[in-house]
Amino acid sequence: MLTYLILQNPGHNRVYYNLADKLALAELQLASLRMEVSSTNIRIVDIAAVRYLAMDCDRELSEADLQIISRLSFVFALFQLDESAGKQRLMPIAASAYQYVDDKISSLLKYQGKTNELFTKMMVNVALLSSNFKYDETINLLDPVAGKGTTLFESSVYGFNSYGIEIEPKSVQEATLFFKKYIETERYKHKADKRMISGKSKADAIYIQEFEYARDKEEFKSESLRKKLAFVNGNTNDAANYFKSNFFNLIVGDLPYGIAHGNTGVKKTGSITRNPSELLELCLPGWNTVLKKGGCIVLAWNSFVVSKHRLTGHFNDNGFEVLSEAPYDQFEHMVDKSIKRDIVVARKI
Ligand SMILES: C[S@@+](CC[C@H](N)C(=O)[O-])C[C@H]1O[C@@H](n2cnc3c(N)ncnc32)[C@H](O)[C@@H]1O
Q1: Domains (ranges, CATH) in the chain?
Q2: Could you tell me which residues are beta bridge partners of residue 280?
Q3: Other Cβ atoms closer than 10 A to 324
Q4: pTM, full prediction
Q5: Whose CA is nearest to atom 3 of ligand 1?
Q6: Distance, CA 264 to ligand 1 centroid (Å)?
Q7: Could you state, in chain order, the average pLDDT of each consecutive group of 10 residues for the chain (349 residues)?
C-alpha cells in the first residue's frame, strides 16, 4: 500500500475560511472514482504540524491519475510518503502539465461580483468528474450566467471550448476586450468574429462574439485543434435559441446571489426576479435542450435565499438527476454574513 500526501494551495483557506478541508476532501473523493489505481482512506493527516490530504493507493499513480490530481483546485504539491526505517520522508512528485492557457488568466481581471477562481476551478472539475466525459475529449462548456468570464477562462485553461451568456453588455464588452488583449499578448494565433445569432431585426438582434485560437500556426490550421471562446450578450432564458441542441458537455455557473448583484432575468409576469429558484424554473428547459445526455450542470447559489430541496425539485421536473449522496452534500460553506454558498450538481438523464 502506498500513501500519497497533498499539500493544499495556501489560497484555499482564504476562499472557504476553515472549511477548506471539507471541500478539498469532497473534490478528491470524486477524483478518486475516476483514477486507474484504487484508493482508500481519503483523509486529513498532520505531519510535523503541517496538514495534508492523504490517500492510500494499491499501487503507484499512473500518468492518467496524475493528470486528474494535478487539475484539482486545491493541489499545491504532491508527495509520496516513505515510512521506512522508522522515519517519515516526503518524496515530491511532479505535477502533470495540462494547461492549454496559463491559469494566471482568470486572476488578472479584478472586479466586484467576481467568482473566486479556485472555487470556479473546483466547479469545473466537479462537473467533468460527475459527467460521462473525460478531460481529454473535446469538451464544450457553457456558463449561462457568465459575468466577466471567470468560468470561461478556467475552462480555457483545460483546453475546453468555452461559451458564456451574459445579459449585461458592459460585462461582455470588458471580458471580450480582456480576452482579445490576452491572446494577443501571449501570441496565440487567433481570429475574432461578431455575428448575429438570434433576432429578426437589428432592434432585437442578439450577437455572439467568438474567438478561435491555437498555440501556433500548425494547430490553428486544424479545425479540431482550434479552441473556441465566445460570449453571447443575451438572456440565458433563450439559451436554446442561441445554441444547437445537445451541444454542451458541461454547464457551469455562479447564479446571481439575490443580494448585491441580482439576476436580471425577466419573469413571465414582466417583473425582474432576483431569486435563483425563479431563474432556474425559467431556464432549465432551455439548458436541458442544449446539454448532451450524460452531461452535467454545476451551479453555485446562495443557500440563505433558497433551499437545495427547492432547486432539486426544479431539476427533477426538467429531466435531470440531482447528485445528492456524499460527497455531493459536502460543498456548503459560508462566504460572508449574507452568503452561504453551496453547489447543486445534476446530470441529464
Ligand atoms: C454571480 S454573477 C457571475 C459572475 C461570474 N462567475 C464572474 O466571475 O464574472 C451572475 C451573473 O449573471 C448575470 N445574469 C443574471 N440574470 C441573467 C440572465 N437572465 N441572462 C444572462 N445573464 C444573467 C448577471 O448579470 C451576473 O453577471
Answers
A1: 2-93 (3.30.70), 105-348 (3.40.50.150)
A2: none
A3: 13
A4: 0.95
A5: 147
A6: 8
A7: 95 81 97 97 96 97 97 97 94 96 96 95 98 97 98 98 97 98 98 95 94 96 96 97 98 83 46 75 97 98 95 97 97 91 97
